[in-house]
Amino acid sequence: MGTSSNKKNIVIFASGSGSNAQRLLEQFEHHPHIQVVALFSNNPEAFALQRAQKFGVPTAVFDRPMLREGKVLELLLPYKPDLIVLAGFLWLLPASFVQAFPDKIINIHPSLLPKFGGKGMHGQHVHQAVIDAKEAETGITIHYVNEHYDEGAPIYQERCPVEPNDTCETLSARVLTLEHRHLPRVVEELLLSEKNSSKTPAA
Ligand code: GAR
Predict the structure, then answer these.
(1) Residue 180 annotated as catalytic
(2) How far is the CA of 87 from the centre of ligand 1 (A)?
């Protein structure tokens, strides 16, 4: 298990469908400098697991005790992650886990944080809250992860309008399109930037 190449390693955490995971798997399948080395999920039924397996990417499933007791950390370390991407991952990570990967865990959230973030604010709940609040615009936020829901430093935001007749479905489709367009690019830029380029280049 693990990886010995000189590429930057991404580990994806996903809880559900995994359409963002799919975009990352596609983007980095034949990338010269970056690879997805594993997909971890808290949900054995997550379709994201099947998506990763189709790309030959190893998967791992864990439960709350495994996360709390450091077992997930143990399973993760052999993959030497340069970046952990929470792509539709719905659990809060314990402080000990976050502290093990300073500035190496990012999350994508389907609103313009700090609006419509926090516990219970995920997926359709976010879009319904945006519609209920009669917001004129919404969007996506890609941000670093700390030990609180949706509170880490922002990396990138992109906006889109909320149309008068929007339903949860139409709005979530518009926002998801933004996620798919920007997440792979932001991940690539982060990994290729100087800040993260600590690995010895290939000889
Ligand atoms: C995405 O919209 C993502 O932003 C959201 O869950 C969806 C997962 O879709 N994440 C959150 O709400 C986190 N608070 P996907 O499984 O198809 O990528």
Answers:
(1) no
(2) 6
The 3-state DSSP class for residue 75 equals: helix
Cis preceding linkage at 154, omega within 30: no
What per-residue confidence (pLDDT) applies to 197? 53
Ligand 1 atom with the smallest distance to the CA of 48 is: 16
- Looking at residue 4, its pLDDT comes to 56
User: DSSP 3-state assignment of 155?
Assistant: strand
| pLDDT averaged over 10-residue windows placed end to end, the chain, 203 residues | 77 98 98 98 98 98 96 97 97 95 96 95 95 97 94 97 96 98 98 64 39
CATH number listed for the domain at residues 8-197: 3.40.50.170
178 to 23, 76, 170, 174: CA distances (angstroms): 12, 29, 13, 7
Question: Which tokens in the block code for residue 72?
Answer: 């997930």
User: Does residue 139's CB lie within 6 angstroms of at least one atom of ligand 1?
Assistant: no
Q: Which sign, positive or negative, has the C-alpha torsion 46, 48, 54, 60?
A: negative
Output the pTM of the full model: 0.94
From CA 173, how far away is CA 175, in angstroms rounded?
6
